[in-house]
């Protein structure tokens, strides 16, 4: 089963949630233009707030997880119904019959909405991986690529 979910972007920024401190930020979906050619995709990213690391697929927000789960649920319902339909067709001449009652389709998830909020920040060490962070955050930040601390502004 293959679920594909398209996540909305805010001017190229994708909303992320730290699996450790559960604070939200946005990272740029792919590096911006002045990325050096020899830059490699990191295996882990650092949380800009708490500095903890996690692999790239661990940063889904609760809303994104819920959206993915609903998509998966809808997909498996369709899969089951197809299976029952097949059974109904195969047994139509038999004494024992299967009849498929139409069940309510699973509501598709509401499309995620991405507001234009948060402040754009670029780390001095990896400026081609800009992030957007909470306006109210005033502590030093961690570069999401290498974890180096830097002060805002
Ligand atoms: Zn964190
Ligand atoms: Zn860095």
The shape, in one word, is elongated
Q: What amount of the residues lies in strands?
A: 15-25%
Tell me the strand order in the biggest sheet.
Answer: 1-2-6-5
Total strands: 8
Structural class: alpha+beta
pLDDT averaged over residues: 87
Q: How far apart are the first and last residues' alpha carbons, in Å?
A: 46 Å
Identify the bound ligands: zinc ion
Compressed to H and E, one letter per element, the order equals EEEEHEEEE
Descriptive labels:
4-stranded antiparallel β-sheet, binds zinc ion, elongated, 153 residues, two-stranded antiparallel sheet
SSE topology:
Layout (H helix, E strand, L loop, with lengths): L12 E5 L6 E5 L16 E2 L6 E2 L7 H29 L28 E3 L9 E3 L7 E2 L6 E2 L3
Antiparallel strand pairs: 1-2, 2-6, 3-4, 5-6, 7-8
The site of one zinc ion has 8 residues, from loops.
């Amino acid at each position: 089963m293959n679920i594909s979910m398209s996540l909305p972007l805010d001017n190229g920024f994708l909303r992320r949630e730290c699996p450790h401190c559960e604070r939200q930020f946005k990272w740029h979906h792919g590096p911006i233009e002045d990325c050096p050619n020899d830059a490699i995709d990191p295996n882990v990213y650092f949380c800009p707030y708490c500095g903890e690391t996690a692999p790239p697929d661990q940063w889904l927000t609760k809303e994104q997880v819920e959206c993915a789960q609903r998509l998966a649920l809808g997909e498996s319902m369709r899969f089951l119904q197809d299976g029952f339909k097949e059974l109904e067709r195969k047994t139509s001449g038999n004494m024992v019959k299967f009849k498929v009652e139409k069940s309510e389709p699973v509501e598709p998830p509401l499309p995620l909405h991405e507001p234009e909020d948060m402040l754009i920040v670029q780390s001095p060490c990896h400026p081609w991986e800009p992030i957007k962070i909470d306006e109210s955050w005033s502590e030093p930040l961690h570069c999401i690529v290498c974890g180096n601390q830097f002060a805002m502004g």
